[in-house]
Amino acid sequence: MKPIKLAALVIMILAFVATAFADDVQRINKDTLKADMGSYHIIDVRTGSDWKGSEFKIRGAVRLKGDIVDFTKNKGWAKDAKIVLYCA
């Protein structure tokens, strides 16, 4: 199989898998988050340059550096903690 066809196949498979798991992720809108900020751990997952260049940041959010599982363990958060990830 040619490398381009193989790459296209891999991308299609990854896209399918990603969308299959996306249904399991709960979404929250900004009004709900604002109303109950104390119930959530808010993590900003933007890269350093995107984060530095943005004028929009959620007060109290922490920046993710590395793996999310290791990050939450290092923070000492409970396994069932409510975590909000945001990137914009």
UniProtKB/TrEMBL annotation:
InterPro entries: Rhodanese-like_dom, Rhodanese-like_dom_sf. The keyword Signal applies. This is Rhodanese domain-containing protein. Residues 1-22 form the signal peptide. It comes from Halodesulfovibrio spirochaetisodalis. It comes from the Bacteria. Residues 36-88 form the Rhodanese domain. Keywords: Signal.
